[in-house]
Amino acid sequence: MIAKTFFGFEEILAKELTQLGAQDVEQGVRMVSFKGDKGFMYKANLSLRTALKILKPIYFFKARDE
Predict the structure, then answer these.
(1) What's the rounded Cα separation, in Å, for the pair 59 and 21?
(2) Which helix (H) or strand (E) holds 25?
């Protein structure tokens, strides 16, 4: 999953996710990716103060051309 945030808040958001119990937390630009189950997604959505929204991928595919 991906938690979107404002620029500069990535480190704070990563710490919040770690304290909540997220797995495989990785910082990016204006986002922090993490792993967890459906229950953790709801917990994160309600508990995170610095996240704007939580994005959950629903399908992966490989594009062969434009």
Answers:
(1) 25
(2) strand 23-27
